[in-house]
Amino acid sequence: MKGEQQQDHVRSNEERPFKYNAGDRAIGVEMSQAASVASAAAEFIDEGERQKGMGPLNRAYFKRPGERPAFLVLRDGCEDRPLFREDAGTAPVGPCLIRSEEWLNTPELAELYDSWLTGEDEVQTERTLQRIYYRLRAASLALLESADGAWTAVTLLCTPELAALPARLAVLQDAQLEALFSAVAESQRLGSDCRVDLLAPYPASAPEFAVMREFIEDVAEQTLGHAYAAACRIGALIAPGAHYAAGEIARIADFLVLDGAACGRAPEASSAEGFARAAGEMLAAVRRVKPAAVVLAAGAPAAAALADLYAIGMSGIFCSAGQRTEALLRAACLTWMARQDHNVDPAAGGWL
């Protein structure tokens, strides 16, 4: 059965575009019409505001014939966001990356997690886990009601303390997924339109990712039903230096994120140059087996290496609030310059 399901993942993966039905243009789509780099940056930043009154159409982050897909600058983390979705004023052009370990670091969860991790009494540990579940459910509901709730990509919990305790890690991840999907069910019951994608953290191989994917889909199906499980996009968070496995993982993953926050696993990739090199190796491995794969980067090194990531054809980056303004401006400049170069006819010596 598991083998059949994994084969189904491979067969159906090409039918699962990383797309969102809201708005009608990818970010920065009119850069070539900007009068200057400054106005290009303004259009890049304000594009969402100008889409508010437009009807929903398919948006897919795949290369169409004759054009380069948009390079996305997306949000990484929970900080500096409007608390409620009606305050956001923009339609999402891509998901916001939520690292669920941030939830464990909050005061209300940190003490519970430590108690559960060190507890020896089985009954008390189970009660503590139940309290963790309710806290995670509340955090998930708050996320879905926020500006990032329209589309978010959440990582599965993966803490250093549980790296050597796979059974306990699976228990905690199960509680997290049930809390998250229960929050999705409540949000849908109240009429809210939300999309939650999942990221399996740092799989070492395609078989390991397949097991994690099946686990996520099983919990989604048990909580929300088969329809949601089939529609849920499941990607992989890849550590720099793990490009040797990225190609095979890409066969059954809906999208990939190269995580600069995991550069401790590959210290040579912590600089912008080292990260760009790791990204190029990963992208080459992925494109060999899946040319249309969506491959993004995250973390501080990704923002620092933005120009190189754009040049090699990455799909975009996730960056923190402190890096976002500069990253938007740099991406706008690169998009504007690329489109100007594309519009020059060398034979005619002028613009097309």
TrEMBL record:
UniProt cross-references to InterPro entries, sorted A to Z: Pyrv/PenolPyrv_kinase-like_dom, Pyrv_kinase-like_dom_sf
Source taxon at top rank: Bacteria
SUPFAM superfamilies: Phosphoenolpyruvate/pyruvate domain
Record-given protein name: PEP-utilising enzyme C-terminal domain-containing protein
UniProt organism field: Paenibacillus borealis
Organism lineage string: Bacteria, Bacillati, Bacillota, Bacilli, Bacillales
